[in-house]
Amino acid sequence: MESRNDTQISEFILLGVSEDQELQPILFGLFLCIYLTTVIGNMLIILATISDSHLHTPMYFFLSNLSFVDICFTSTTVPKMLVNIHTQRKVITYEGCIAQMHFFVLFVGLDIFLLTVMAYDRYVAICHPLHYTVIMNARLCVLLVLLSWIVNIFHAILQSLMVLHLSFCAELEIPHFFCELNQVVHRACSDTFLNDVVMYFTTVIMACCPLAGILYSYSKIVSMIRTISSAQGRYKAFSTCASHLSVVSLFYCTSLGVYLSSAVIQNSHSTAAASVMYSVVTPMLNPFIYSLRNKDIKNALKKLI
Prior knowledge:
globular; Rhopdopsin 7-helix transmembrane proteins; 11 helices; 3-stranded mixed sheet; about 75% helix; disordered N terminus; mainly alpha
């Protein structure tokens, strides 16, 4: 792309989580372990749901899709960071940066949409148990997942095209371990007003609206659980959505914490380190959260292993 001073930007520099050279081997080992745990854990969830006929239900169908997205989510950023640490080179090509940003926007959006769909599934299961199999039929489940993909593909394409129209005046440093949309946009030397408008508007639509849907679903679930007379019945009803509620809380609390703190704290490396929580650690923890208190998953994993 041609910039204002007629130089062509071919590379960006990713400063990473820390510039301390003594920490690089430790960070490499830590992130390699996290990445392998994420891939293996989520792959086991997918294989368990496919191999066990008892798990061929809407809840586990959505869970296997979430596990697949989590693998892709971390694979978008972590392998490149590991390569940069190992080779001691912090560069990423212009094309690579745009591609990484595109897929990060896609998969983080899919994470949000799938968590929302799973909240709706739990709402129907608890509030309308007699009609659950009719409402959550195979056609609707596939349609919800397909719609999530279509919406987020178009959103990611929109954000990528908006960035492609920006001009970058020199070799730029990005104070992050991946090409995060906001960081890339604000490194441009051309006017970013339209990018900011689109970025903040889509954030409200793509993140806040699903969160409102999740909160609404759980408000109905809590109201229904309160009407159950027996303590055992209330516990059983709550346990069916406890894992999902934990994942939602972990994802939204860490991601919102990152973006709210970044507006107050001007330390870019602190923001990058905090971003590790929702973009790297959360996908790793999801398989553990869903399997620790879920007997069906435990039994399926035992049969698989």
